[in-house]
Design the sequence.
């Protein structure tokens, strides 16, 4: 399925939209750090324009609604409150009907199937009180890709109404776990960002950890114990072919791609210490970046590739440091209470997400790249492993419950600390890593 997704070509064309609607209209959500009142929207069921499209129209409406409402920025008005209806995609909109139920935005759509199993999805976004069309697009692709087209529709609406980059058409690689806590089986798995379409990439015979997507989402790096010691493997997602990244087969772990996808930075262990190395994927050449008696690990590049944030106990405790990407003096940036680890640079470049352990609890938090404006977003028995959405607005992580039957699950939270929600997966899930938007 991933192969199909990666090779998918979704053709998009603009529908007829009045010229003035191409410009920024008055309807827009201003995302701030404060409490946000979700925008009330109406999403009538997409119209099935020919036989066989009914189920797709219903499913597509559900996914679009789930994406937008799940962001926490939109509130779907109960269809039972609707005065108007949409049975013809091209019929004029009766704005008073939607204004009467206080719908700020209206999304109408239609789905049709062609003889060669192609699906055509059309939608329009209206500013109800402004009585104008904000956006109109048409997508065409294989009907098997209906879910991706749903995410595409939601992405377009989200971007138009927030002015932010979207994140719905993306994937997450994570560790799928099953069995009792003292004999847990772990596999690599990929899924849609919302937990749908799970596909397992490895068997459960070996322990696997810390998977990460390449920038184009066609490769994954991860740590595996299949050779008896932890080593970083590189896997092609289409073919599932893989290889050990370090030809000298050292103990390597905690890998992360560079922004251009040409290098991997990771830890290489020697005795009781570990240092950071960058590996050139094409040549196999490795470059040592740190050389201390400490444990340096969990590196993550800045989006421009010029710096690396990582965790280290070089100061006597587990803290977060930033250094040039080619090595050099490291600057400590975490100075709050407790220990800090698993730092990840935001794709926007403005923040670093991290795990904080203090007061007997684990927290997911964010701070500016100089360590200022630290904010803890969550807290529990064990919250760990933050990863950013492609637009840098949402953080996914895993939360493990306490006790002998304790098990991990995936959660997401807005960067403001709001909209905490569980991400449904078929089994226990840990160590998620978000891809960028799919091509």
Sequence:
């Amino acid at each position: 399925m991933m192969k199909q997704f990666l090779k998918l070509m979704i053709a998009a064309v603009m529908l007829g939209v009045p010229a003035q609607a191409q410009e920024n209209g008055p309807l827009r959500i201003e995302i701030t750090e404060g409490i946000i009142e979700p925008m009330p929207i109406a999403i009538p069921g997409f119209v099935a324009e020919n036989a066989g499209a009914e189920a797709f129209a219903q499913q597509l409406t559900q996914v679009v609604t789930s994406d937008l409402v799940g962001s926490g920025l939109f509130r779907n008005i109960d269809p039972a409150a609707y005065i108007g209806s949409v049975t013809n995609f091209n019929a004029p909109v009766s704005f008073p009907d939607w204004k009467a139920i206080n719908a700020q935005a209206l999304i109408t759509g239609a789905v049709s199937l062609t003889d060669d199993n192609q699906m055509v999805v059309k939608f329009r976004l209206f500013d109800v009180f402004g009585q104008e069309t904000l956006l109109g697009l048409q997508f065409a692709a294989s009907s098997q890709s209906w879910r991706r087209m749903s995410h595409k529709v939601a992405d377009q609406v989200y971007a138009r109404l927030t002015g932010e980059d979207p994140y719905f058409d993306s994937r997450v690689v994570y560790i799928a776990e099953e069995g009792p806590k003292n004999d847990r089986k772990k596999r690599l798995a990929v899924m849609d960002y919302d937990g749908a379409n799970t596909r397992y990439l490895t068997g459960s015979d070996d322990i696997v950890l810390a998977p990460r997507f390449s920038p184009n989402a066609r490769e994954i790096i991860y740590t595996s114990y299949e050779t008896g010691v932890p080593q970083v493997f590189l896997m092609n997602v289409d073919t599932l072919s893989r290889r050990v990244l370090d030809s000298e087969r050292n103990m390597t772990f905690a890998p992360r791609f560079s922004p251009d996808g040409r290098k991997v930075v990771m830890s290489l262990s020697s005795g009781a210490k570990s240092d950071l190395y960058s590996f050139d994927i094409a040549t196999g050449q490795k470059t040592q970046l740190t050389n201390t008696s400490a444990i340096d690990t969990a590196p993550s590049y800045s989006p421009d590739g010029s710096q690396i944030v990582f965790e280290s106990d070089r100061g006597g405790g587990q803290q977060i440091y930033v250094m040039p990407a080619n090595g050099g003096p490291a600057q400590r940036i975490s100075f709050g209470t407790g220990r800090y680890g698993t730092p990840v640079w935001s794709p926007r470049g403005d923040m670093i997400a991290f795990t904080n352990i203090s007061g007997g609890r684990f927290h997911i938090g964010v701070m500016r790249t100089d360590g200022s404006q630290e904010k803890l977003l969550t807290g529990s028995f064990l919250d760990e492993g933050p990863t950013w959405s492609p637009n840098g607005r949402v953080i996914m992580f895993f939360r493990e419950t306490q006790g002998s039957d304790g098990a991990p699950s995936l959660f997401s939270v807005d960067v403001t600390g709001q909209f905490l929600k569980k991400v449904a997966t078929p089994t226990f899930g840990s160590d998620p890593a978000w891809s960028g938007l799919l091509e």
